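Q: How would the structure tokens look for this protein?
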Amino acid sequence: MTLTIEITPEIELRLESEARRSGISKTDLAKNVIEERFAPKEKRENNMPREIKSKIWSSNIELSNALTDAYADDTDEEEKEFLRLAKIKQAQILDEWK
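A: Here is the predicted structure in token form.
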């Protein structure tokens, strides 16, 4: 399918800049954005480059550890339980990404 759209000059400049930075044409960048936006969720997640998944996974682990440290001396048992359950859920989600 061929699609013709009108965009503002500001958007065009941003599109050109990002395309140049990425080393691809404006057309390919726009096509990629549309495909990523409308692809089924499973396809979007499965097509994510492994190094990006790894960085996200590592960042989430670091964030989780920082939160654990921040609440380590907290005496509020409810907050500690929330954090414990959040870490379990995070681990489940991250395991699905591996």
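The chain is about 75% helix and 0% strand.

Helices lie at 9-22, 26-38, 41-46, 50-70, 77-97.

Upvote if useful.
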